[in-house]
Request: fold
Amino acid sequence: MGYKWIGAVLVVVGCGGFGFSLARETLRQEALLRGLLTSLELMENEIRCRLTPLPQLCRLAARGRNGALRSFFLSLGRDLEKGTASQAQQCVSNILEQQKDLPVPVRRVLKQMGASLGRFDLEGQLKGLRACQNACRRELGELERNRELRLRSYRTLGLCAGAALAVLLI
Reply:
């Protein structure tokens, strides 16, 4: 009889933990998108004012970032400098294949960024970076819309699903 109760508590805790981890992942996505937006704005300003070369631009974008975004931009700068691929788009694709910890919305914006970097003239690259910024803002807006309600729902659903399973098992 005691094992059933221990099992029930473990089921509730496990399902509740899953709900809380979903909420934490949503907050992580928001933070990554905000960091990416800041990096894209910095890149636009550097290209416009200083005509910074792409490898150096990527290293500048990595400053102030941490985790997956920092690693992405440092890898991109290194690959562009080495010339491991003929275009920035191919470098971005190669790095995204290696880095599986970036969420889908961030990946979409980074792929879009790779498609415009180094392919066009100055004005074309600036337009491409602005389009990436707008896409990033849209993704961020989607995540921020009803954020508190959604986060609370993830947590509540996790705990309720765990309680329902525990009742069924007892």
Remarks:
- The chain has one domain: 2-169.
- Helices lie at 2-50, 54-62, 67-82, 88-98, 104-116, 122-144, 147-169.
- The chain has seven helices and no strands.
- The first helix runs from residue 2 to 50.
